[in-house]
Design goal:
With 168 residues, this protein is α+β, with helices and mostly antiparallel strands. The chain has a domain of 115 residues. The protein is 32% helix and 27% strand. Strand 4 and strand 5 form a beta hairpin. Helix 2 crosses helix 3. It is found in: Membrane.
Length: 168
């Protein structure tokens, strides 16, 4: 598991579920990046191959640990020991931070200082939905569009000449 250093946070999300994850936050470190660059040159590029194969090791060697609310990159570890590297995104007009993992959006909650899974209207109780029969205002609709994204499935339709060429 992760080391717990004083002042450095790690968090768990989806506790007790199949997709439970441990998080570590990282931010840029110029001196660590320079040292790793020198090491790559000294090893003739062999270290670069290792860092390409294991992105979590690359992040730990070139970035410095930080609290989750200041993180630019996250290293996630699931209960099977698999590690994933995810980039943090910031929506300046709505002032929230989030990351995407396996097509699920996790949003930073400033009040509780942790990430929570973004859930849609399908997770609400019926009484909440019935209270919203008048619909959302245009500003609320724009906020939800930025938060959830478009509700569409884009399908690329190839021209007939290209389909014919692919078949031949």
């Amino acid at each position: 598991m992760f080391d717990s250093k004083v002042g450095i946070e790690h968090d768990r999300i989806n506790v007790g579920e199949e997709d439970e994850l441990r998080l570590q936050g990282f931010t840029n470190s110029l001196w660590k990046t320079i040292i790793v660059g020198i090491t790559i040159v000294a090893t003739g590029g062999m270290m670069a191959i290792l860092l390409l194969l294991r992105p979590a090791i690359r992040i730990r060697l070139t970035k410095r640990r930080c609290t989750l609310d200041k993180a630019q990159i996250l290293v996630l570890k699931d209960k099977y020991g698999d590690e994933f590297v995810e980039q943090m995104f910031i929506m300046p007009n709505l002032s929230y931070r989030y990351f995407m993992h396996k097509k699920i959006k996790y949003i930073w909650n400033d009040e509780y200082k942790h990430f929570r899974k973004l859930k849609g209207l399908d997770q609400e109780k019926c009484s909440v939905l019935y209270s919203q029969v008048e619909g959302a205002s245009s500003s609320e609709a724009a906020k939800k569009l930025n938060l959830f994204g478009r509700n569409s499935i884009d399908i690329e339709v190839l021209p007939i000449w290209r389909l014919t060429f692919n078949e031949v």
